[in-house]
Design a protein that fits this description.
about 260 residues, alpha+beta, Glutaredoxin, 4 strands, globular, binds glutathione
Length: about 260
């Protein structure tokens, strides 16, 4: 799911200023909306980034998130937030900049609708990517899910001409399209055409994509080395800190290779 190469990630600087830990999946070429929103909200430097490879031994976040999913955000007092939508809204709530959630009215519902549209495209792309690894993959999974993606892309094209500023819906659209690009480049299965490029026939969405790629919040991590030490030891050490902040006892180092035992 993620590249081994990224265990060489740069350590995040100035640990003292860190007020939260973001356990995240460092997938190369993926524009994660939590990272975009963290940057847009001006809280990037407050975050200790903890790369997690959820399918690898030693990287379980289950001790702090029952779902064992990334992203997971832990606050200094031990509060843990999960679900990217919750995390993104929390980060935006800290922002002193222009907020990414319109306050009320049609603009808000429009942004939330586009957030749901893109998040579901991402989820559907994950389902297809996982299915491709099955032996044999079920054709029905692709037949059922791909039309959703195509219709959603057409809706994104229709929306693209009417967008103003930058909002959470757009952050999520970046997330979905970058992940889709990654999976399309690797190849999916029929009815997904070989070499499919969502840009073809979608000039407004393409123009929007080319424009938003220039945002500092995208350039900060897209196709770059990841922030945070990528070892299992670092991940476990960070999880232990969260557990201690929650007042829990953490078992001895010997058991740290797989999961923390919480007493
Ligand atoms: N609905 C969740 C989905 C997150 C998600 O699918 N995360 C994957 C990223 S690879 C994960 O952690 N998978 C590990 C697992 O399901 O055990 C969100 O938006 O945060």
């Amino acid at each position: 799911m993620a590249k081994r190469k990224s265990t060489k990630a740069k350590p995040a600087a100035k640990t003292a200023k860190k007020t939260m830990k973001l356990f995240y999946s460092p997938i190369h070429g993926f524009i994660h909306k939590a990272l975009v929103v963290a940057h847009e909200a001006g809280v990037w430097d407050q975050i200790e980034f903890v790369p997690i490879y959820p399918m690898r031994d030693g990287y379980s976040v289950a001790a702090i998130n029952p779902l064992h999913k990334v992203p997971t955000l832990a606050l200094k007092d031990g509060t843990v937030l999960y679900g990217s939508q919750t995390i993104v809204e929390y980060l935006d709530s800290l922002s002193k900049n222009k907020k990414l959630y319109p306050k009320s009215g049609p603009a808000r519902w429009n942004a939330l609708r586009r957030l749901a549209l893109a998040d579901t495209v991402f989820e559907v792309a994950v389902v297809m990517a996982l299915e491709k690894n099955e032996n044999p993959p079920r054709a029905s999974v692709f037949a059922w899910h791909w039309p959703k993606v195509e219709r959603a892309l057409d809706q994104m094209e229709a929306d693209a001409g009417k967008l103003k500023g930058f909002d959470v819906g757009q952050a999520s659209t970046l997330h979905a399209l970058s992940y889709l690009d990654r999976q399309l480049n690797k190849g999916l299965m029929a009815p997904v055409p070989d070499g499919y490029d969502w840009r073809n026939g979608r000039s407004k969405l393409t123009a929007w994509w080319n424009k938003v790629l220039k945002r500092p919040s995208v350039k900060a991590h897209f196709n770059k080395d990841y922030v945070g030490v990528g070892t299992a030891e670092f991940a476990q050490q960070q999880i232990a800190e969260v557990l201690r902040a929650q007042g829990k006892k953490v078992a001895a180092a010997a058991s740290q290779k797989v999961d923390y035992q919480v007493n």
